[in-house]
Amino acid sequence: MAQAPDATTSAPRGLPKESPRLAKLVSQMAQCSRREADEWIENGWVSVDGVVVNRLGARVNPKATIRIKESANRQPAETVTIILNRPRKVEDGAGEDGRQTIATLIRADNRWSEDHTSFTFQASHLRGLTTAGKLDDDEGGMLALTQEGSVARRLTGGDSRLEKEYHVRVEGELAADGLELLRHGLSLDNVKLPRAQVSWLSEQQMRFVLHDGRKGQIARMCALVGLQVTDIKRVRIGSVSLGKLPPGEWRYLREDERF
After folding, report:
1. Could you say which of 5, 39, 74 is where a domain stops?
2. What secondary structure letter does DSSP report for 126?
3. Each residue's pLDDT tens digit, 121-149
4. Most confident of 22-26, 69-73, 247-251
5. Dihedral angle at the C-alpha atoms of 184, 190, 191, 196, nearest 10 degrees?
6. How do residues 63-78 score in pLDDT, each as one tens digit?
7. Residue 184's closest CA among 175, 176, 194?
8. Measuring CA to CA, which of 63, 145, 223, 252 is 20 to 30 A from 155?
């Protein structure tokens, strides 16, 4: 039986005292952090008078019977990194204009069937999930989303030297010295670009490997040497590859993978 928390002040006369938040009572009962209590509630491990309550911020009668599943105490707090094969023209953050966002793309029903990591999808895995290394609107492919600050810093820090590999479909006629210029020799906005690895994969597809990139850089580089980009797909960041992950699906970063 949960006990109401001690009150140091009384409610104004004539107004009912506000019921305590469920997370506060759970935290007191289990001697856990409020964040852990929120995670247990979100995961459906907490019931009030026999009814599971999984809404954050819920308030309950302090005399209610609160039960916590044993599995909650055995479940350590975990942080995750997710690899998404993002379709083109999907916003990386929350949008107010109704466009699909990353948060709507990470769901239990579109997790890759071949993801054999030990993680069980939980709503708490979406809390604090940030995009590390964004894609332009006209780019698709590999996107990393993480709850781990160290991973985010390695992917987005100013001194990040992780390679990012793109497969780029092009049309047009490449200038005579175009390939060498793409590799080294072009400038954008009066700034000389660092050396890049550029090669042909097929008659209409090229491979670009960059360490850092500006918005629209690949398309702008190609335009300078007579090519028009029709599709850009990121397939690798550092040593982590997109592999066979289908478009619109996601997986957890494996234990043997590191950024």
Report:
1. 74
2. G
3. 988 888 878 888 788 888 999 999 998 87
4. 247-251
5. -20
6. 999 999 887 766 656 7
7. 194
8. 223
Long-range contacts of range 53-61, CB-CB < 8 Å, 24 or more positions apart? 53/22, 54/123, 56/23, 57/21, 57/23, 58/21, 58/22, 59/18, 59/19, 59/20, 59/21, 59/22, 60/19, 60/20, 60/21, 60/22, 60/25, 61/19
Q: What is the dihedral of CA 98, 102, 105, 107, to 10 degrees?
A: -120
Classify strands 227-237 and 139-146 as parallel, antiparallel or unpaired.
parallel
Q: How confident is the model at residue 6 (pLDDT cuts 50, 70, 90)?
A: very low
Strands, E assignment, the chain: 46-48, 51-52, 66-68, 81-86, 130-132, 139-146, 164-172, 187-188, 191-192, 197-202, 205-210, 227-237, 240-241, 250-252
Sequence letter at residue 102: I
Total tally of structural domains belonging to the chain: 3
Task: Give CA–CA dist 24/7, Å, rounded.
Answer: 13
Judgement on whether residues 111 and 217 belong to the same structural domain of the protein:
no
- Is the sign of the CA dihedral 80, 83, 84, 90 positive or negative? positive
Q: Which helix (H) or strand (E) holds 22?
A: helix 22-30
Residues recognised as catalytic: 136
Q: Which two tokens stand for residue 167?
A: 């497969």
Rounded Cα distance between 51 and 69, Å, is: 12
| Higher-confidence position of 132 and 52 | 52
Q: Determine phi and psi for 208, rounding to 5 degrees.
A: -115, 135
Full domain range(s) for residue 101: 78-162+250-259
Considering the domain architecture, whether residues 157 and 174 belong to the same structural domain is answered as no
**Cα separation values, 103 from 100, 136, 152, 223, 250, Å:** 8, 17, 17, 33, 12
